[in-house]
Amino acid sequence: MINSDFFIFASPLIAGFTSSALKKITDRFIVLLHPYIELRNGENHHRKRYKNYPNFGLFLEKEIDTDSEDLKIINDIYDRFALNFHCKMQYIKYIDQHKVEEIVYETCNI
């Protein structure tokens, strides 16, 4: 992952948030950062361990009852993930349930 330029996360939304599998993956990225903390923009963040970190995008399958508050929370969480990991979230795409063709279309147009 650290040697890539870009990667994509994909997950269904479950109970208003990403799957536990995606949460586990993002939690395990912490080893890619230095254990020491630095002050950036008035906040404490991990220092870089590597020179470059890849940017990322998200494909998330909405639930029937997904609302705007769920989407805002998810956006905020992954914005914070990008900030801590010295990278950029280039996009987040929400796909309606069972619309696999939308994912294929979006992937081809990155």
Average of pLDDT: 90
Helix percentage? 25-40%
Query: How many beta-strand segments?
Result: 6
Uncertain runs = none
Fraction of residues in β-strands:
35-45%
Biggest sheet features: 4 strands, mixed
Morphology: globular
Rg, alpha carbons: 15 Å
N-to-C series of helices and strands: EEHEEEHEH
> What is the first-to-last residue Cα distance?
19 Å
Work out the helix count. 3
Integer count of domains: 1
Question: Strand order within the widest sheet?
Answer: 2-1-5-6
| Structural class designation | alpha/beta
Which features does this protein show?
110 residues, alpha/beta, two-stranded antiparallel ribbon
What does this structure look like?
The longest helix is centred in the C-terminal third of the chain and has 17 residues. Strand 3 and strand 4 form a beta hairpin. Helices cover 32% and strands 35% of the residues. The chain is built from three helices and six strands, in the order E-E-H-E-E-E-H-E-H. It has one domain. The chain is α/β, with parallel strands linked by helices and 110 residues long. The strands form two sheets. It has a four-stranded mixed beta sheet, with helices on both faces. A two-stranded antiparallel sheet has the order 3-4.
